[in-house]
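Budget justification aside, the reviewers requested a transparent look at the raw inputs and outputs of the sequence design task funded under Objective 1. We therefore reproduce one unedited record. The lines immediately below are the structure tokens for a 278-residue chain.
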């Protein structure tokens, strides 16, 4: 029996409220980024006069090379995603398709690594970064970021890898394919939804990370955008440039929105595949 009409209305109303609450902060940030002067504190959602002064001044701040920081974040996030997916795919093949003693324990240990809070490993990671000569370099952030992106990637891809038909692997072995060719030519096309969803989540985690970026990089030219936004300041502690902060927040959010909209179908299929067994 179909649900009563009032239940459907209630569902749509609840969904509308959730969407409004979720989207309003971003809409407010966009609105504020186009305001200047006293208009920043006016209780109106859209300014009477639109200005791009905040965006222009954001890239002309002498103390904060924001454009350089965006490039640093892009470099670090892309490298984190690429390395996480490469290691995740190869590790998931071993953990999901090859039977060996202690496989379950190893997989649990991989997941357990992600349960430690960042501050618990901060001191040890700081010493490691200094020992490797990566301190004060944006490139050095790739290693600590792998702590919270790699366990999730390995775990999710292993779950997908286990569900792939065994007959495909057996047929590839009969044709003389080795493990790497099986992964690249047989399993990779089937893993695209999982790769997109896990890769996007890893990108978002690396793009938004703040504690490691603040601790391991002090050179202003090597910073990433979360730290860059946090350090935007005015002439005094009472003169906070809210317009510049909002403009920066909008600019760093747009790439994430674009990626989600571009890959939304694969993200949904990647996150829901295997949820129901037929």
């Amino acid at each position: 029996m179909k649900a009563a009409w009032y239940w459907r209305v209630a569902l749509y109303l609840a969904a509308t409220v959730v969407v409004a609450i979720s989207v309003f902060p971003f809409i407010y940030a966009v609105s504020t980024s186009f305001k200047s002067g006293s208009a920043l504190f006016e209780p109106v959602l859209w300014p009477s006069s639109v200005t791009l002064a905040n965006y222009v001044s954001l890239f002309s701040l002498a103390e904060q090379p924001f454009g350089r920081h965006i490039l640093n974040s892009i470099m670090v996030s892309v490298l984190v995603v690429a390395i996480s997916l490469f290691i995740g795919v190869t590790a998931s093949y071993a953990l999901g398709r090859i039977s060996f003693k202690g496989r379950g324990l190893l997989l649990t240990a991989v997941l357990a690594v992600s349960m430690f809070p960042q501050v618990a490993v901060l001191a040890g990671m700081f010493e490691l970064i200094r020992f490797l000569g990566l301190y004060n370099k944006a490139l050095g952030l790739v290693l600590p970021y792998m702590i919270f992106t790699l366990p999730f990637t390995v775990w999710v891809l292993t779950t997908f890898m286990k569900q792939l038909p065994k007959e495909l692997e057996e047929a590839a072995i009969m044709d003389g394919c080795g493990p790497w060719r099986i992964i690249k030519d047989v399993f990779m096309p089937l893993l695209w939804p999982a790769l997109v969803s896990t890769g996007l989540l890893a990108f978002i985690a690396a793009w938004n990370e703040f504690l490691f970026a603040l601790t391991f990089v002090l050179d202003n030219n090597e910073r990433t955008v979360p730290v860059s936004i946090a350090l935007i300041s005015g002439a005094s502690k009472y003169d906070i440039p809210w317009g510049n902060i909002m403009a920066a927040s909008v600019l760093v959010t747009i790439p994430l929105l674009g990626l989600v909209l571009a890959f939304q179908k694969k993200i949904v299929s990647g996150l829901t595949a295997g949820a129901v067994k037929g």
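The chain is about 70% helix and 0% strand. The domain at 58-230+266-272 is CATH 1.10.3720.10 (MetI-like fold). Computational costs for records of this kind are itemized in the attached budget.
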